[in-house]
Amino acid sequence: xxxxxxxxxxxxxxxxxxxxxxxxxxxxxxxxxxxxxxxxxxxxxxxxxxxxxxxxxxxxxxxxxxxxxxxxxxxxxxxxxxxxxxxxxxxxxxxxxxxxxxxxxxxxxxxxxxxxxxxxxxxxxxxxxxxxxxxxxxxxxxxxxxxxxxxxxxxxxxxxxxxxxxxxxxxxxxxxxxxxxxxxxxxxxxxxxxxxxxxxxxxxxxxxxxxxxxxxxxxxxxxxxxxxxxx
Length: 231
Description:
single chain, 231 residues, alpha/beta, 8 strands, 26% helix
């Protein structure tokens, strides 16, 4: 049932970066504009960390904007319609059986995200919980984790597509918060990139934030194309 070799057709190669874009760079632009320039089926995988308020608006923490939360409240927020636009565009640029790794907090995981992927060829195939090893806010339980929903474009399959079988579904990794407002675990993203792509394959991140996926791609010899509004 397992395979360490990709047997599905590889993504369509890009001999050069699309006009106005650059591989392996920290581009400053709207991710939807970047995705519109990428040919269909060109990416082996993508990561997406939508900037939404979710639980913060619902619980209305009184100390928001103080100390460590100050940079977070200044970030431009994505509407639900904007998130759907991003996901639809990511579906287009992914190769058949390609993967989208979608970051999500507990609130959106519990209340549902089906509307984000409606009308696409993406289906949920797995989920990883990232233990940040750092206590966060919460009126009841205190948040110390985020979730990475694993979506796959049709046709859905694991054999010959997913090449690593030593990734636990609970991942412990502490990150250096000086790298950005919402830094993500480079080690986990490296392992996932290894699992679903080959050296040189294109990995896309249209809301790159701290550009942790760029670092993971450099470490694993993949081609990165990503951007963020804040550069």
